[in-house]
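Before going further, learn to read the protein records used in this course. The integers have meaning only within a learned vocabulary of local backbone shapes. To see the layout at work, look at the sequence and tokens printed below.
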Amino acid sequence: MPLAADTNIYLIGPRASGKTTLGRKLAESLGRSFVDLDARFVEARGETIAELVAREGWDAFRRAEADILAETAAQKGLVAATGGGVVLLPENRALLAKGLVLYLQAHPDRLAERLMADLNPDQRPNLTQLGLKEEIVATLAEREPLYFSLAHACLPERPIDELLEYTLRALKMF
């Protein structure tokens, strides 16, 4: 039985793992709408994540992110790229579990390379006071068990075209 057309597909994983890039290509291949939750936050709030975090802290962002995920989950048949920390709140995990969840894996060295190549502190503010590589390792240690617990499939790091083909093959299992 093929994946139901009204099932949302959620891409989870650390920042810079390729969720937005894959999400756009996957949505196009499947003829579905694409949503980037971080971009939706900026559109809805009229401010960057960094601005909210600087003013009110990460907890305020997580609450806003949960609202945006709930609004997105009420729609059907989307491909959605989530923020890396969306898995931290239990209510978010419950919403994600109602769709098909794909975990984009990436090595910490590769994540650091991508983040250094595309510095965007407004969209990707530091999560800790650690250096970039140390922050990535610490964040993965905290979040990876949550990513694994939600994932219907884990997508290995690959060049984007190979990753898209791998993902489309994986979706045939559902």
Q: What stands out?
A: The domain at 9-164 is CATH 3.40.50.300 (Rossmann fold).
